[in-house]
TrEMBL record:
The keyword Hydrolase applies. Pfam families: Abhydrolase_3 (PF07859). The lineage of its organism: Bacteria, Bacillati, Actinomycetota, Actinomycetes, Streptosporangiales. The keyword Cytoplasm does not apply. This is Alpha/beta hydrolase. One of its GO terms (molecular function) is hydrolase activity. Keywords: Hydrolase.
Length: 322
């Protein structure tokens, strides 16, 4: 593919060394999802566990009413003071269709080690087998359990953040909206990394990046169809599934939003951040020049990748008083 002229030179060099395979997402069908998921999960399973001072334990907790239990992956410092720690409740990405908490083990280890926090990562049900509202309801059920089990987990319920990346960022925003509207757990902060927020796909950036690194317009349309079926882009879509549709953002916790300049989600993320500000929600927004979707995961050692990780960790540390 031809790269965008604004692509950061260091990111371009990474792509030149390790080019992405060409995938015709416009021709993908729902039947293809299982194969793609198996490939992604096999790659994730082959990645060695991080060599860090972090212990990991899987827990199974009650899911939504009438639904299966939800698996939570609890990351905690292996040693240190026994006082109640801040907690990040984390939701993985994957276009609503793929992904496991294990994919983010190394990513989350940095948060645990740098901030001394506990991270609880949720394994939610995936579309299209489990369409909306299953994913966000699983995420909410796990959050409810986490808050209720704060003493057991050794966390401070007053320092509980919800975060996620890409589809996980969208689910994080939806979970926080549910917590507000249901009078659920008190969330101190929301960490929204390049979040997938709007099924309507009508922003300029959603049209601009028909050809893009990692996640283009066709992929985004397909992901939303997997989650919402024929409702995608129509009038009957819940704001908990597509948070950009929420009419009222007042009363939400302080937020951090970041996104790359060269990605489908750019405009919906910037718009959401500005709507949060106008609703009286203290919000930090970062737009990374020359960056594509997931740049920090593909090129973590580049200047932009390092800056993005450090900025997020610093913002979370300030919010949770780490």
């Amino acid at each position: 593919m031809a790269y965008h002229p604004n692509l950061d030179p260091e990111l371009r060099a990474v792509l030149d060394r390790t080019p992405l395979p060409a995938v015709d997402l416009s021709a993908m069908t729902m039947e293809d999802v299982a194969g793609i998921r198996a490939e992604v999960h096999a790659v994730a399973a082959a990645v060695p566990r991080p060599d860090s001072g972090v212990t990991i334990e899987d827990r199974h907790v009650p899911g939504p009413e009438g639904a299966p239990d939800v698996r939570l992956r609890v990351h905690r410092p292996a040693a240190g003071p026994e006082e109640a720690r801040p907690c990040l409740y984390w939701i993985h990405g994957g276009g609503m269709m793929v992904g496991t908490p294990e994919m983010d083990d190394a990513f989350l280890a940095e948060y645990v080690e740098r901030l001394g926090c506990v991270v609880v990562a949720v394994d939610y049900r995936l579309a299209p087998e489990h369409p909306d509202p299953a994913p966000v309801e699983d995420c909410y059920a796990g959050l409810v359990w986490t808050a209720a089990s704060a003493a057991e987990l050794g966390v401070d319920p007053g320092r509980l953040a919800v975060g996620g990346a890409s589809a996980g960022g969208g689910l994080a925003a939806g979970t926080v909206l549910l917590a507000r509207d249901r009078g659920g757990p008190a969330v101190a902060f929301q960490l929204l990394i390049c979040p997938m927020l709007d099924d309507r796909n009508v922003t300029p950036s959603s049209h601009e990046f028909a050809d893009a690194v990692v996640w283009n317009r066709d992929a985004n349309l397909f992901g939303w169809r997997a989650l919402l079926g024929d409702r995608a882009g129509g009038d009957d879509v819940s704001p908990y599934a597509a948070p950009a549709r929420a009419g009222d953002l007042a009363g939400l916790p302080p937020a951090f939003v970041d996104v790359g300049e060269l990605e489908v989600f750019r405009d919906e993320d910037v718009d959401y951040a500005m709507r949060l500000v106008r609703a009286g929600v203290s919000t930090e927004l970062h737009l990374y020049p020359g960056a594509f979707h997931g740049f920090d995961m593909m090129a973590p050692d580049t200047a932009l990748g390092v800056r993005a990780r450090q900025t997020r960790i610093a913002a979370l540390g300030r919010a949770l008083r780490c």
